[in-house]
Design a protein that fits this description.
The protein is an alpha/beta fold. Helices cover about 25% and strands about 20% of the residues.
Length: about 190
């Protein structure tokens, strides 16, 4: 998620590095409710969950990424039915609309992450990009909104002020960065 939380560890892009240790639990809870038994011989699925920072929200350690995804709505819906609870997309992937269709009627079962392009890091453009993402995703809020890549021409305070505005308006629950090295993040 956020390379700023790596505390001296080398950057690994979008690898999840939350503060809590992983725990194995049945897939149920805040964003992972009980699911059907698709194989008929399993009484529950287990997966590692990690707390998102100190939020109290535990998410699957493995998410369903949609970069270069072209499978359509049905495979995404099947993944959700089989326990995928963390769906990752981005403005640049061109998959927000298909993700939106897949989560329709299932939004309460999914933690939704998307990312904004560096060309939209000025506050006004960032808010407009988030509005576009919300419309394409067919939802009233994004769970995790991230700066996708660095933009060395815009101070980090500019997009972060736009992100904070989106949080204040209830359109975004959590903010973060993706693909940023720790030396790019202010202390």
């Amino acid at each position: 998620m956020s390379d700023c939380s790596s505390k001296g560890k080398p950057s690994t892009g979008q690898m999840a590095r939350w503060l809590a240790a992983p725990t194995e639990r049945p897939v149920q809870g805040i964003f992972a409710p009980s699911i059907a038994q698709p194989l008929g011989k399993i009484d529950h699925f287990s997966m590692l969950l990690r707390e998102l920072a100190n939020s109290g929200i535990r998410l699957p350690e493995i998410g369903f990424g949609t970069w270069n995804y072209s499978g359509g709505v049905e495979p995404l819906q099947a993944a959700i039915e089989c326990g995928a609870r963390f769906i990752d997309t981005a403005e640049s992937y061109g998959t927000e609309e298909v993700v939106g269709k897949a989560i329709k009627g299932r939004r309460d079962r999914v933690f939704l992450a998307t990312k904004v392009l560096p060309r939209n890091f000025m506050q006004r453009e960032l808010v407009a990009a988030a509005e576009r993402s919300l419309r394409l995703l067919g939802t009233d809020h994004i769970d995790l909104y991230q700066l996708h890549w660095p933009n060395l021409t815009i101070p980090i305070e500019e997009p972060m002020s736009g992100m904070e505005k989106l949080v204040e308006e209830g359109k975004v629950r959590f903010i973060g960065v993706s693909n940023l090295s720790t030396y790019r993040c202010p202390a």
